[in-house]
Amino acid sequence: MVIGVLSDSHDRLPETRAAVTLLLRHGAKALIHCGDLTGQDVVDCLVGEVPAYFVFGNNDWDRDGLARYAADLGVTCLGTYGVIDLGGRKIGVAHGDVLRPLTELEHTPDLRYLLSGHTHVSDDESDGLLRRVNPGALHRTRQKSVCTIDLAADAVRFHLL
Description:
CATH superfamily: Metallo-dependent phosphatases
Order of helices and strands: EHEHEHEEEHEEEEE
Radius of gyration: 14 Å
CATH class: Alpha Beta
Helix content: 10-25%
CATH architecture: 4-Layer Sandwich
Number of domains: 1
Mean pLDDT: 97
Number of helices: 4
Strand content: 25-35%
Strand order of the largest sheet: 4-3-2-1-10-11
Shape: globular
């Protein structure tokens, strides 16, 4: 199973639409947004043919409104952080602006991936069986990027917009 990961849209709709299109074109069967959507219009971009999940970032001010709106559209809001099971793998998701959720997720039994954003810098590093991935950002960065993760092959691929 291939998943598409994006973060830090900051209400940039053309970039978010382009990112989702790119991820789906590369075979994503689920989308995960690592926070800083900032508006309901970005949630609209996640709605489509595959399941979508997101966490709140430090710039997501109307959290209750975003969560309600997402639920009405069938997009799963994980709150400030959460764990999902996809393709037989446990995946932790947090924005990355607060250390505690990352630390808690790191101690989740059988967690294979820890996805986060916030830094606006793409990154992929492994620590034993845990792989930490930051897809980069769609705003306030020279290189707008997202990534796909092939869960069966344990392969991360970054894509520039």
